[in-house]
Structures are given as structure tokens and as C-alpha cells.
Amino acid sequence: MTDPAGAVLTGPSSVGSGPTEADWAAAVAAVRQLPADGRVLLICHVNPDGDALGSMLGFGLGLRRLGVRRLQATFPGPPELPEPFHGLPGLDLLVPEAQAYPDPDLVICFDAASASRLGALADRLATAGTALVLDHHASNTRFGGIHLVEPTAAATSVVAEELLDRLGVPLDAGIAECLYVALSTDTGSFRFEATTPAVHQMAARLLATGLRPGEISRRIFDHRPFGAVRLFGEVLGRARLEPAAAAGLGLVWTYATLDDLDRHEQRPYVLEALIDSVRCTAEADVACVVKQVTAGQWAVSMRSKGAVDVSRVAVALGGGGHRFAAGFTGLGSAEEVVGRIRELLDDALIVEAGQERPRGVSGF
Length: 364
Ligand code: 5GP
Ligand code: MN
Fold this sequence. Notes:
Blueprint: H1 21-32, E1 39-44, H2 50-65, E2 70-74, E3 106-110, H3 124-127, E4 130-135, E5 146-149, H4 156-166, H5 173-186, H6 197-207, H7 213-220, H8 226-237, E6 240-242, H9 245-248, E7 251-256, H10 258-263, H11 274-278, E8 286-294, E9 297-304, H12 310-316, E10 320-322, E11 325-331, H13 334-345
Parallel strand pairs: 1-2, 1-3, 3-4, 4-5, 7-8
Antiparallel strand pairs: 6-7, 8-9, 9-11, 10-11
Helix pairs in contact: 2-4, 2-5, 4-5, 5-6
The structure holds guanosine-5'-monophosphate and manganese (II) ion (MN).
């Protein structure tokens, strides 16, 4: 996902601090104490984005370097990857979920804030010998046994890199490319608030393995079929601006249907980039794209420029995410789904103690 997540820990979704030394030690031990023929299953969240796939495959390549041979990576849902990820190193680790070890010695989850993001694969949390969770969502529910959840990390790949380092695995170009795709995805190409000096230092370590950032960025961000360009034109053309929403901070939203995809002969993943074109609207703090999954079911992406905690809205509607990037599954018509969001926005304004109200807010 594109993830303008702040490194900010205030707010109702905060779960406190990141991993302790004991957590890191437990994670290292879980890997080091694997039997020689131990089976390891890596799982990332449904509809995997750059951070989910990149942190999972990069870590998987690291485990391979450590000598782990019985190693699979998977995610719930159709075993189909968005085209931008077709060149990622480590894809040979991927298996369809139906072929994933039913009772691995170790399961490791990547970038999933809750067990529900693992779909049917969530049963491995019970059948695996040990369940290790690498994540950076403040809303992480602490599922699994060992938690490496760092809400201040810009991406799950930051946690993955640290664990590889603690395991003594040096970065090579394959591992680095995966982790770089993950880091650049979740920082919006190093543009969002979470882009700290430490993020750039990590990027420098990754690039030093010989990566070509221009080529990687073009592949991941700046590359889509002409049909998708025309589809974007149509979907953006029907975007609606509601300046009064979110207590006057403004909401901009649009929707895309399965019929839109069909007419332009496009796969659903192309719609993931749409939110970036919608959220640049100057007149709105909150942006939303409602993407049809089946009749009456929509995958909703929300973004905020900083005055609204969209994760509060998403959690209230059964989803999750970060303060400034969140989502959920909506039912009904697109209008109805947006109606529910609109109702919750006024209560999701961020007013820090000692700060003035966000600009544009009137009368409360
Ligand atoms: P995106 O809009 O890029 O799909 O997702 C933005 C953020 O919201 C990500 O952190 C993602 O994990 C989270 N998110 C999106 N959809 C859902 C959902 O249906 N459930 C939950 N729990 N989180 C979601
Ligand atoms: Mn992430």
C-alpha cells in the first residue's frame, strides 16, 4: 500500500512501544532453534502490497541464506500477483495457499495487523509450532506468539531488516531489492512523514548492494497499461468533492466497478494506484476510493493529509490501518459505503493537546 503512516504514536489506536530485547531474542531463537529439516511458512496479508510481499520475500531469501531449505511463502486468495511485482527476487518461494504446509514448525506473518488479514491461512497460527509476527501497524491486535510489532517503523521491512541483521544474515542484492520495494512503497517513495533519517540510512544500505532505484521505481510505481490510464481517466472524471465533510476539511471520493474493469480489460490490482491521484485534491483533507470486489462488496481505501485519523473510521467499519492510510470492506452501494464514512469523519478529527483545531474546522 501507499502508506502515509506517521511515526506518531498518539491516538486511540496506539498499542504502546515496539519490541523489547526479550521479543527480539525470542524471534532469533525461534529461527536458530529450528530442527535441521524444519518447515517454515511465511504468510503476508491478503491483496499483498509492496511492503507485504517485499518484507516476506526479502526475509525468505535471508532464511535461505541461513540454510533453511523447507521454506514456503504464501498469501490468502488467488495465487496471482500484480504485474509490478512480477520481477521481484524470491518469487520461487511462493506457493498457492492450498499447497502451504498445514502444520509448519515456524510460521512468520508479515504486515498483517490482525489474523483476519491472513484469511483461511490464519489457522496456521494454531497448527504451527511457533508463530512469529513482524508488523508496524499501531492497530496490530497482538495475534500470534512472538511479536515484533514496531509502530514507529515506516514499513514492516524495517523490522525484517533488523531481524536479518540480528540473525547475522548480510544483505545481498536480492534481499535488498525486496526490502527496498517494501520501504519505498510504504513511504510513498520517501515522501511521507515516516521518512526519517533512519529510513534514508536503510535505503542507503540497500542501494549499496548495487540496486538500480530508477529501474525499480519505474517498474513498481510508474508503469501501467494504456487501458488502465483510460480507466483512471473515467474514474477520476466522476470523482466528487464534498467541501463540508469532515467538519469542513473536505472529502474527495470516487468509485470503480467490476464493469469499469471489464470495459477497459483491466485486472483489479491496477486500481490500487488510483488513491494517489485522488488524494492530491487540494480542497480535501480526506480522500477515498471505493473499489468493487463482488456485487455489493467494496474494498475501501482512505487517506488523510493529517487532520483526520482515518484508521478510526476504518476500525469502526470493521477494517484497520494507520492514522493517515486505512481501509475496510464495505457492503451495499458505493453511495451507502461513503455515507457511512461521512458520518464518522467528524469524530475522527485529530486535535492534539495544546494545539489549535485543524484549519477549516468550524463551530465545535
Ligand atoms: P490500502 O488503502 O493501501 O489498501 O490500505 C491502507 C492501509 O489500510 C494498510 O495499512 C492496510 O493494511 C489497511 N487496510 C486496508 N484494507 C483493510 C481491511 O479491509 N482491513 C484491515 N484490517 N486493514 C485494511
Ligand atoms: Mn506496511
